[in-house]
Amino acid sequence: MSDKSNRYPEDSIESTRQKKMEEFRRSFDQKAIRGEYDDDVSYNEYSDDTSSTSYSTDNASLRRRKRSNEINSYSDSDTRRKIERDSHKELKRQKKEEKKIEKQKAKRNRRIFNIVWISMVVILAVAISQFLLVGVNDLLAVKRELNPQKVTISIPANPTIGQIADILYDNGVIDKPEFFTMYAKFTSSEEGFRQGNFEIDTDKDYEAIINFLQSNQNRTDIVRVQVTEGMNVLEIATLLQENGVTADVQQFLEMCNSDVFDEDFTFLKNIDNASERYYKLEGYLFPDTYDFYLNEDPKVTISKFLDNFENRVIYHKERYFGESKKTTLEEQMNDSDYSMDSILTIASIIQAEAATKEDMYYISSILHNRLDYGYEINAGRLECDSTSYYPYRNEESVPDSIKSTFESSYDTYEIAGLPAGPICNPSVEAIKAALNPYDTEYLYFCHASPEDGSTPYYSTTLEEHEYYLSII
After folding, report:
1. What is the pLDDT of residues 217-270, one digit of tens each?
2. Staple 364 to which of 267, 334, 403, 433, CB 3.0 to 4.6 Å?
3. 256 and 364 together in one domain
4. 197 forms bridges with which residues in the sheet?
5. 365, 437 in Cβ contact below 8 A?
6. Residue 45: per-residue pLDDT
7. pLDDT for 256-289, tens place per residue?
């Protein structure tokens, strides 16, 4: 028994209980040896009869109760408080131990994380350094300048900076497309690249490449197109499409009927009847020989026409009919009885009807006579064949789908006075003729067939005019 009690610490509850129980057993055994019994038990009750058995049973039960009370007496309030204190201390100890373990684990994890982080930083720093070193060399064209070459590249319409970088890389102009893209974005240069073909040297740095590709002057896909006097907007659009300048004819025509050029070209603001015209810019696309680019932006193309009109008509000064004073055509139009737009309308009809330069001034005289006093002699309408099918050149040019029902609002056989706008784009000579007609009394004109030399015939009366018509 003593061996078993040694399993517990001497100050523990279990050890105390065991000691008490051991003392109780020893005391009980000594009383039994000495024949000492409890005062409430009579010796006469111990006999061989049944009553002795009953006494023995009751006595044993009594002893068990006393032993139980003896043992349970150690679970009093002091003992419970001690147990609670011990339990609380043990719990605190366990928590403290857990925190210590967690702290050690966190410390170990932090060391591992720091090692991994430092390793990643070192690796990333090396990678970035290598990237920057190679990228800067490519930016400055360090290696490419050793063996420069000329290459031709083709830039599409509205390219992204990624497309530009890939094209340059594929043609050996740069070595690091991702670095070029980053540089262009950093310098806000990713927009403004021109469409077309460029012949570029491979020894250019990034800034030189960007400047080169953002200028139309460096394009090699130039198309020279001659726009002849008297061509109308529809004919010009078709000519540009045939030469690869304009891919979308409809877009070109829509631009010719818009107001997008009014801010740049103030002379267009004088047009106050745009809604009555087929094409607002008809008469202002100055006929000349132009250098265009393949698949050019229609706005750029039209701007070239208007720039030329401004230079040749609005601002250009020249000696006019031997006069010593030089004036611009605009100044002469401002001094006339007609607006600039009306003069251009007269000039467009002259351009479409005249066979020669001198013929222009005679026809101009006839048109002015009809406009000035023709209504007094039943000749108030201009009655020019060139206006009958506008915006088309003639009946054959009218699309089959509308030919049977087409009626032009410009038809001077049906309307009095001038049509809403020009019917073609006249030359400078036609504009001069419209401003300075010959002084005649003619009211009619006609021409022989081109096979017969397009000889002109002028008349003052309808009878004379009908005669000329019968002989040509």
Report:
1. 899 999 999 999 999 999 999 999 999 999 899 999 999 999 999 999 999 998
2. 433
3. no
4. 154
5. yes
6. 42
7. 999 999 999 999 998 999 999 999 999 999 999 9
For the chain, what is the domain count? 4
Of 339 and 158, the structure prediction assigns the larger pLDDT to: 339
| 199 or 64: which leads in pLDDT | 199
**Which residue's entry shows tokens 């706005």?**
299
The backbone torsions φ and ψ at residue 317, rounded to the nearest 5 degrees and listed phi first, read -110, 140
Rounded to an integer, the average pLDDT of 44-48 is: 43
350 with 458, same domain: the answer is yes
pLDDT at 109: 78
- Give a yes or no: residue 390 inside a domain: yes
* pTM of the full structure: 0.66
Based on the domain organization, do 280 and 331 belong to the same domain? Answer: no
Alpha-carbon distance of 283 to 166, in angstroms, equals 44
Question: Containing domain of residue 204, as a range?
Answer: 144-218
Which is nearest to 290 in space by CA: 246, 353, 354? Answer: 246
Question: What is the C-alpha separation between 401 and 455, in angstroms, rounded?
Answer: 35
Does any domain span residue 101? no
Tell me whether residue 99 is in a domain: no
**Structure-derived torsion over alpha carbons of residues 329, 335, 337, 341, reported in degrees to the nearest 10:** 40
